[in-house]
Design a protein that fits this description.
disordered N terminus, alpha/beta, six-stranded parallel β-sheet, 13 helices, 13 strands
Amino acid sequence: MEDRNRYEQLNGYQITIEKGIRSVRNFRRGFSYGRGSVKQNIERLSKEIAQADAIVIGAGAGMSTSAGFIYDGTRFEKYFFDFGEKYGIREMYSGGFYPYPSKEIFWAYWARYIYVNRYMNPPKNTYEMLYRLVKDKDYFVLTTNVDHCFQKAGFDKKRLFYTQGDYGLFQSTNPSVQKTYDNESWVMEAMEAQGFIKNEDGIYDVPQDRSIKMEIPTQLIPKCPDDGSDLTTNLRADDSFVEDAGWHKASNAYAEFLNRYENLRVLYLEIGVGANTPVIIKYPFWQMTADNENATYACINYGESCCPKEIEDRSICIDADIDALLKQMK
């Protein structure tokens, strides 16, 4: 019982949500777009990174978008042209919710979706540039992204908390099975079953005649290895999301990191976080900055960079493309 209580007390996800909710009640004076020019704020941010005792990075979808993980355009046309032609789908995300006529077609789509957004590298080295900026500091990453880009860029997996899941994991549709399952080998097999061919760089590519199948064999539909139930993606969509042992370990590590530096010089660096899930990163970062007079809040976001007026004097707001800004900082 003692271990269980400690486990619950160190739930970083619960802590961050509570702080986010508290911030909604506390900030009433309106918002600021920050002070100073972009150049001045880049200099301020560089200084804060250098002098911080710790850096808490909060990253949202804008980070991966800036790195080139875009769900429409060239990437969609290359890997989903046939789905676009037959079902009228125009970008990957909405295609994930389409009511396909069979499980074989549904999983063919999702095998491609997972492959291009989890097992391929983003077109740009945005994540690597961020890593080079913080790798010698004591850092921790909180992210709502599910594409694994931080770990692929070199970030220590013990310093990462993916709150919303991972494209690389499956979970059972049976709620009594609270485990996740690595899907890499299944994804590769499903890509081959559709006719994709590995090129000289080891990347699955569309054959020259574009003769790929839009379904996988029935026997390849993923099943739970423990009870034979259907599998689904480990992505937070409702209360059926499985928070497995690895998720809880990362949640605890995040809570311990926050506690360790609670009153020291902390930089809360928010990157590419929009308005879809502000209570997970944005609002808690505002609140933790307000609670710690030694803390600084920084927001990098193209078109959405702001802060509450209550912490304006300790905030750095930079309205810029993330990839372009990191190029300047390096």
